[in-house]
Known about the structure:
The structure holds two protein chains of two kinds. Chain A is α/β, with parallel strands linked by helices. Chain A has helices at 46-53, 76-86, 102-113, 118-131, 147-159, 177-192, 204-207, 235-249; strands spanning 2-13, 20-31, 35-39, 61-66, 69-70, 87-90, 165-169, 196-201, 212-217, 220-226. Helices cover 52% and strands 18% of the residues of chain B. In chain B, strands 10-5-2-11-1-12 form a six-stranded mixed beta sheet. In chain B, strand 8 (154-157) and strand 9 form a beta hairpin.
Amino acid sequence: MDMITGHDMVKAFGVGEERRRVLDGVSVEIGEGEFVAVMGPSGSGKSTLLFALSGMDHLDSGTVSFAGRDLSALDSEELASLRRTQMGFVFQQATLLKNLNLLDNIILPAVRENRKNAQGIIARAKMLMSKTGIAELEKRDITQVSGGQLQRAGICRALMGSPKVIFGDEPTGALNSRSAEEIMDIFTDIHTEGTTVMLVTYDAQVAARTQRILFMRDGSIVSEMRLSKYEGHSMDNRIGAVTAKMREIGI
Amino acid sequence: MLYRIIQSDVMRSKFITLTTTIFVAVAAMLVSLAAILAVHLSGAIDTLMIQAKTPHFMQMHSGALDAKRMTAFAEQNSQVDEFQVLEFLNMEGARIVIDGQSLAGSVQDNGFVTQSSQFDYLLDLEGRIIQAADGEVYVPIAYMKDGTAALGDPVEVSGKLFTVAGFLRDSQMNAMLASSKRFLISANDYAAIQSDGSVEYLIEFRLKDLSELGAFEAAYASAGLEANGPMITYPLFRMLNAMSDGLMIGVILLVSALVTAIALMCIRFTLLAKMEEDVREIGVMKAIGLRLSDIKNMYLAKYAAMTIAGSLLGYLLSLMLQGVLLENIRLYMGDGGNAMWAVLVGIIGIVCLMLTIIAFVNGVLRRFRGISPAAALRFGAAGGASSGAKAFRLSRNRLLGTNAFLGIQDVFSRKRLYATMLCVLILAAFIILVPQNLHHTISSEGFATYMGIGNSDLRIDIQQNEDIAGRAAQIINTLDEDSSIAKYVVLTTQSFQARRDDGSTEVLKIELGDHSVFPVQYAEGRAPASTDEIALSVINGNELGKRVGDGLTLLIHGQERQLMVSGIYSDVTNGGKTAKAMFTAPSTDIMWSVIGVELRDPSLASAKVAELKQRFNDVKVSGLAEYMNQTFGRTVSSIGTAARIAIGVAIVIMVHVTLLFMRMLILKDRYAIAVLKAIGFTNSDVARQYVWRSVCVLVLGLVVGTLLANTVGEGLAGAVLSTLGVSTFTFEIDPLSAYLLCPLMMGGTVLAATLIGTSGAGKIQISDHIKE
């Protein structure tokens, strides 16, 4: 069953002669429980595709349906509610609020949704922090931890509402290779637990962890490849396959 | 390059730049206006007093005058340069009818004079000495200003007809604060109406050396010469002339200080926001080795440009507006002839303002030093975590909604940022509440007692009467028979010599009678309770150096009498120099009497006034409300107007600054807003958070503003009133208005401005700020 379906999506930026289609009639389906990566060179439209499928960007034309609901028919309040309850987001920068410490940042969307269950929310946040290896940092300000730790906190925040889908926009883009690998281990675990994951990345190592890769260029999906379920030992082969495919289609 | 940086920055923040420039322009305009007005006022007063040859010392006197003795004194005193005695024909207001309207209701002592021959000239509007022809009357300029008289109006004085031939400037009595007004007529006409009024003498001296005035005053007093009436000196004439326009200049300066403070707050806020926005760039500039002064100059340049543009605009505006404000000075006192000097002083004022602003900007920019390049590049923040909000933990919050928590927490974690808005709200509360509380206080009934006036229903003034004691006795008989009168008291004022500690004497006007009937407010001590006690007005107490419990020696008909000071009280009547005692003295020397009356039914006051006026047409009968209204009505209504204007100004400032602040905040917080939206917060959630921020700052501002208004504001108002002789002043606050209506009005204004100012938050697109 499809979790997200985008049909003939068009999105352009700029004015007059400068106007350029960043999504040029893209159609895509992402099934429930899938682990998908979107790859492509800078400006190919991969982030715009993620923002369109999550309802954070409005399309010029085309439709997106999320868990059977047409996103274009929803107003901003309904879209916000959907993001809060059924989606989770992880961005390249951790996008945490400066005024709050790590724990408060993590529980923020959850307490907005249900303030009465504060104890339960805090317990879940601590469990997630422990799972992602930042249990000791709950009282730290965001300027007192490393980039990798911030990103883990961002993932915890995204998971607080037990979302159906996690969207990641280059979630390892600002991290060193070791931190990136640790973050990808977390995403792999999330997927294993049954959550649909969609990542945008330029990194073959990240893409190689997923089961399906969409390649984009100039606003269109130019190719697609499927991989078997990730097992730790097959990583080199998977990366080799992904880079070969990238060479084949010239990105 | 500097020009390009300024231009692009101005284009990016047009609204904020324009607003700040306007504030600077208004401040510059007001500073320049105040400087120009002050120079003109001072010049005009000097010119008027030189042209008119104002006396250096003047003693008003009613009653018999020993001209020979007076002349002998003048001739023997080496200080005297010129001396004259002018007659002032005091005319009952009801006997003067200008264009069909009588002056019966006027609290001024209106009288007729002929032109002086030696000095103290009455001048026309061109500054020339007027010579009135028969049938002509020249009317004090104040009556032209208030619309009482116009050129060519018929004036009837005790049945004799005159025509208003012009208006006169009187270097002594121009100001409304001077309680007498002189009308100029010809000598023939004066002789014709002389029998209809009572003559009062103006005994005038010009001295060879004005600095000897103090010694001359003492010599006059010790010579025991005629002194049945107020004595006024040259510096006091100068002050009276300067008072009303001087107050206006003071108010303009005060408002300009306020506007400058707001301009500085706007600059501080925009600069801090800009620095935070540019922190990465500043970090990069520091990292690549640019000097701190180079970076500072880039920011300073924009504000210097804005300050210069605003100041120039303000100066031009002040030149355009000065005519309107100079009108009053020119009308009352003529042209000072200091136009160039005024222009120069205006420019100096503006240059001072510009330097203040630039120094301030420079001070704010010192924060650059605290920016660590590493922290700036890594986190986009000036380094270090937000401080002061550690106690606010969302995970511990059980009380507030999430939006309320985030709003309030933000205020406490970015205190410096919100300090600007807080200051504006404190200031707004202050300027709304102080004039309002002052207005409520001075328009309340009890305020009369602050001014040395007992709180009776009616007041009967018996003055300029040959037999004051006899007349008072007749009135008392009538009051005794009148069942509507609850109580009354007769207070007679007589002049005595008081001996100072150094042996010299000073004339003291003492109000004798029972002061417990209609008591006044005592700053210290109490009313005199026995014939051995005396209470002094604040000014007299200070001049004589006496405090409660001190002894005071009076000379009563050559006999010394020892009294004890029982109290010190506020007084604004008779120049604030009065005293109160209970002893009795021979009734021959009575200067005037006042009978205070309380009615059984105070609502009948106006009917009773009319009845008594009809019966005793040679005395002044007024209801206390009417008396207060005529004496202080203009002051009360001016303060009422000022209070309303203050509310208007405060609302404009609040709307403007809140709008500006919220727009800046949204601009600054756009990334955080995008994050909140991305994790599922709605537009109305975001709007609620900003409303909570406003509410938090508003409540703090209201509390602090109200406290300051009730303490510092009360002190300020008291300081202003103390110049009039009022001491120990406390606000009488209308709780409904001060503690409910004003906060509601301020709250409504700030919330409306917040909602409008933050409407842009809904338009912030997540993808514009978060997409990599």
